[in-house]
Specification:
By secondary structure, the protein is an alpha/beta fold. It has 2 domains: about 260 residues, TIM Barrel (Alpha-Beta Barrel); about 55 residues. The chain contains 13 helices and 12 strands. A 7-stranded parallel β-sheet has the order 1-2-3-4-5-6-8. A 3-stranded mixed β-sheet has the order 11-10-12. The two termini are about 30 Å apart. The structure holds iron/sulfur cluster. The site of iron/sulfur cluster (SF4) has 10 residues, from loops.
């Protein structure tokens, strides 16, 4: 199976008119300009030189609401990506934006330049959570935008943020189920963090907001991932990308940040699979075959799952088998 690569190009919406409680506008506006087309090209070329032949490659315009920047700028970036696509160097173009920045005219433009995937930062499908988070759009806006995107033949990606003000387990799972029903082919899950100089930091300091505890965030994200796995929605990101600011604590104030958050969550996803499996407890040893891409998380963070199985069996061996569907496993007792 060919490997997928996305070349990210950060295109901020410098004058974002919204005030999402979790967002540090200063950080965004500290980018005093979007990359020029030459800079974007240099980013793409540099990354392309590191990607092996025979890969599936996309260019992704991320970092803000792409369809909120001036149309002429959008067209320059889209034209650049279209040229790579026409030459067969890349196979897809994706971008991220907000649900209320989708219209027929916007989709006409994106379609004309060969965009393949549109990601929406929807964050929640609960209107109270959206209101308390200052998002400035409703769940209904997400429904309309998603339907338009899918009906026009684009692939849909949806991003959610468990743990926003007013959110709870039930609302998070409801959001995940709606993401499935809206026809998303991929999803990103970003548990809410309290970032310095944000309205959320003020709420937290005033004792009006409490982020998810680490264990809670892992458990909730595991349940969300299970909804997506069961419905064949590809989870392409779990947790915020570790940046220097988060690692040294200069930007992060509170919340469930861990450098290996994805591994911690996927360890629990696999732990649940093993707990639900009907083992032959009379056997002494067991070999567990998984897709090579699942090997580390099946064994578990710090070998948690393997260690637990060793409480039952004398010998536990995990083996990679690329013919196995990702997320599944089979067991051999010989
Ligand atoms: S997260 Fe909200 S406030 Fe921040 S750039 Fe996006 S839309 Fe604007």
């Amino acid at each position: 199976m060919k490997k997928h690569y996305t070349i990210p190009v950060f295109v901020p919406e410098l004058a974002c008119p919204h005030r999402c409680v979790f967002c540090n506008q200063n950080h965004i506006t500290s980018y005093d300009h979007s990359p020029s087309i030459e800079e974007a090209k240099a980013i793409i070329e540099e990354r392309l030189s590191t990607i092996p032949d025979e890969s599936i490659i996309e260019i992704g315009y991320f970092g803000g609401s792409f369809t909120g920047i001036p149309p002429e700028e959008q067209e320059s970036f889209l034209e650049l990506a279209r040229r790579y696509k026409q030459q067969g160097v890349i196979q897809g173009i994706r971008l991220s934006t907000r649900p209320d920045y989708i219209s027929k005219a916007v989709l006409d433009r994106l379609g004309a330049y060969g965009v393949t995937t549109i990601e929406l930062g929807i964050q929640s499908m609960d209107d109270d959570v959206l209101r308390r988070s200052g998002r400035g759009h409703t769940a209904g806006d997400t429904e309309i935008a998603s339907e338009m995107i899918v009906n026009r033949g684009f692939r849909l990606g949806l991003q959610m943020m468990p743990g926003l003000p007013g959110d709870n387990e039930k609302k998070s799972i409801h959001t995940a189920r709606r993401i499935v029903e809206l026809g998303a082919s991929s999803a990103r899950i970003y548990p809410t963090l309290v970032v310095r100089d944000t309205p959320l930091e003020m709420l937290w300091l005033d004792g009006k907001y409490q982020p998810l505890a680490m264990e809670q965030a892992i458990e909730r994200t595991k349940n969300i991932v299970s909804v997506f796995e069961q419905n064949k929605v590809r989870v392409i990101r779990i947790g915020l990308h570790p940046s220097e600011g988060f690692l040294n604590g200069s930007r992060l104030r509170a919340g469930p940040f861990h450098q290996s958050f994805r591994e911690l969550v996927m360890t629990e996803v696999w732990n649940e699979k093993f707990q639900n499996h009907k083992w032959r407890y009379d056997e002494k040893q067991v070999k567990i075959f998984v897709h090579p891409g699942d090997y580390n998380v099946a064994v578990g963070y710090r070998a948690k799952n393997k260690k637990e199985l060793l409480n039952t069996f004398h010998k536990v061996k995990f083996l990679g088998d690329k013919n196995i569907t990702k997320g599944t496993f089979y067991v051999d007792y010989s």
